[in-house]
Amino acid sequence: MLETxxxxxxxxxxxxxxxxxxxxxSSSMKMxxxxxxxxxxxxxxxxxxxxxxxxxxxxxxxxxxxxxxxxASPGVEAKKEELKDLNEIRDKTPVIASIYxxxxxxxxxxxxxxxxxxxxxxxxxxCPHAKCGFGSNIGEDPDLTYDIVSAxxxxxxxxxxxxxxxxxxxDITKIAKSAEEAGADALTLINSVGPGLRIDxxxxxxILNHILGGIAGPMIKPIALKCVYQTYKTVxxxxxxxxxxxxxxxxxxxxxxxxSLLQIGTSIMYEGxxxxxTISDDLAKFLxxxxxxxxxxxxxxxxxx
Length: 305
Fold this sequence. Notes:
Helix 1 links the parallel strand 3 (about 15) and strand 4. This protein is α/β, with parallel strands linked by helices and about 300 residues long. The chain has 10 helices and 14 strands. Helix content is about 30%, strand content about 20%. The chain has an 8-stranded parallel beta barrel with strand order 3-4-7-8-9-10-13-14, surrounded by 6 helices. Strands 5-6-12-11 form a 4-stranded antiparallel β-sheet, with no helix packed on it. A two-stranded antiparallel ribbon has the order 1-2.
């Protein structure tokens, strides 16, 4: 009932691990696969190792977290070894590599070096707390987004390209349309909102070492839903919905808004990896009880009512 096939990936369910959470090592990603995730998105990586920002990099807030990890990455060669180790799960749990860079050449080089070990690439052009100049400055500009996506698409013709968009723009549909016109096969909506700030009430000092960070978790769900809803009406490619999904009701909202696939990240901090099986089981039960034969029947339902 939850089985689906999108971008050439055969999935047992539409729930992916989102980039940035438990996607650092092959062992942690295998654990998430065993826990019931339909697919995996790795933590973002680029060519060179990047230490990111010094701790503290994450602070809890009501309804989520603020994080400023700074795109910490071991570099492409180290990440390649982790990806190789995931080959044994890819037949049942497809793997998407999240990659970033500051030029077209960097994106293309990273993708070219790892393309045989993944089922798709997610281009991270949207991180709001990146170190070394990477991040949402690309995803805020439709022309820069077009150039990056088209370059990678021309270089990597046989692997689907997903583009992760930032909500920190005036009109996300313009960026989405630009990515689609450049050849994107799917879009992920959304990355963290922000940046945001939290201050220690005792000392008066900002808690995060970098001061500002991206906001994630349940509190951003209404923003993510809006972005998915609006973008569904604008593009003709599949959408990944991400942002505050904690239970099957949240998942249903994203599916109704137009997402074909879903990603779960921050909520793992609350529920643990078992959240994938819990949501899958509850979602399947809901579909059966309401007379739906498969999950695709409810994708975009809100637009047809």
